[in-house]
Specification:
With about 130 residues, the chain is of the alpha/beta class. Helix content is about 40%, strand content about 15%.
Length: about 130
């Protein structure tokens, strides 16, 4: 990629984004611009406890590693996994599933294609098969 104009990678504020890292490793000069940031509303913990603890949820979906981390960060260490007992955990792909596993949250569903429609379809299939 020597001599090429650098790619422009809009995304969220934070670390660990794969495309910029891979492009840099290939020798590209990459411009990253944060176009959004994830914010965890602290009031959500009470709402999650009411829904998850009350048996009102059949499933929870995580569409990025940051959603898993922000969810788990609402609670004291280890509590998130306990709240999800009996709730199907659906992760959009392997990066999200790995983040969940690191926090003690074991995914039940992960689609072959890492898209929202595929995640919804995989969750439907999971429940149709008795999950």
């Amino acid at each position: 990629m020597e001599g090429a104009e650098g790619p422009f990678c809009p995304g969220r504020r934070g670390e660990g984004r794969y495309p910029p890292r891979g492009l840099r490793a290939a020798g590209a000069a990459v411009d990253e611009v944060a176009v959004y940031r994830n914010v965890r509303p602290e009031s959500s913990a009470r709402e999650f406890r009411a829904v998850l603890g009350g048996g009102k949820a059949d499933a929870i979906t995580f569409t990025s590693a940051s959603t898993v981390k922000n969810f788990a960060g609402l609670f004291p260490e280890g509590e998130a996994a306990g709240l999800l007992e009996g709730v199907a955990v659906a992760c959009i792909g392997p990066v999200t599933a790995a983040a969940a596993a690191e926090l003690g949250i074991e995914p039940d569903v992960m689609p072959k294609d890492y898209t929202i429609p595929a995640l919804a379809k995989a969750l439907e299939e999971f429940f149709n098969q008795g999950g």
